[in-house]
Amino acid sequence: MNVMAPAAAADTLVRVQDLKVTFVSREESVSAVNGINFELKRGEVMCVIGESGSGKSVMMRSLMRLHPPKRTRIEGAMEVDGYDIQGVSEKQMRQLRGATVSMIFQEPMTALDPLYTVGEQIAETVRIHENIPQEAAMKRALELLELVRVPSPERRLKAYPHELSGGLRQRAMIAVALSCNPSLLLADEPTTALDASVQIQVLVLLRRLQKELGMSVIFVTHDLGVAAQIADKVAVMYAGRLVEYGSVQDVLLNPKHHYTKGMLASTVAEQEKGRPLGAIPGTPPDLRALPPGCSFAPRCRAAKAQCRTELPPETDTGGGHRVRCLFPL
Amino acid sequence: MEQPVKKPEPHDRDLHPRDRGGPAQPMLIARDIKKHFPIHAGLMNRQVAEVKAVDGVSFSVMKGETLGVVGESGCGKSTLARLLMHLMDRDSGEIILDGLAVGEYQGMPLGDLRRSMQMVFQDSYSSLNPRFTVEDSVAYGPSKQPGVSKKKAREIARDLLEKVGLRAKLFGARYPHELSGGQKQRVNIARALALDPRIVILDEAVSALDKSVEAQVLNLLNELKAQLDLTYVFISHDLHVVHYISDRVLVMYLGQVVEIGPVDKIYASPQHPYTKALLECQLSMDPNERVDQAPLAGDPPNPVNPPSGCRFHPRCPFAEDICSSKMPALGDTLRAGRDDHLTACFMAQPGSGHSKAPTQADLLKRAAAHPAPMEV
Amino acid sequence: MTDATSDPISFDQDADLPQAVVRGYWASVWNRLKYDYVTLFCLALIILIVLSAVFAPWLAPYDPEKSSMAYRLKPVGHDKYILGSDEQGRDILSRILYGGRVSLAMGILPVALGTIIGGIFGIIAGYYGGKVNMIIMRTMDVFFAFPSVLLAVAISGSLGGGIQNQLASLTIVFIPPLCRVAETAASQVRNMDFVDAARASGASTFSILKDHVLITVISPVLVYASTLVSASILLASGLSFLGLGVSPPTPDWGLMLSTLRQSIWVQPLVCAIPGIAILITSIAFNIVSDGLRVAMDVKS
Ligand SMILES: Nc1ncnc2c1ncn2[C@@H]1O[C@H](COP(=O)(O)OP(=O)(O)OP(=O)(O)O)[C@@H](O)[C@H]1O
Ligand SMILES: Nc1ncnc2c1ncn2[C@@H]1O[C@H](COP(=O)(O)OP(=O)(O)O)[C@@H](O)[C@H]1O
Ligand code: SF4
Ligand code: SF4
Ligand SMILES: [Mg+2]
Ligand SMILES: [Mg+2]
Question: Shortest CB distance from A197 goes to which of B182, B240, B281?
Answer without folding.
Answer: B281
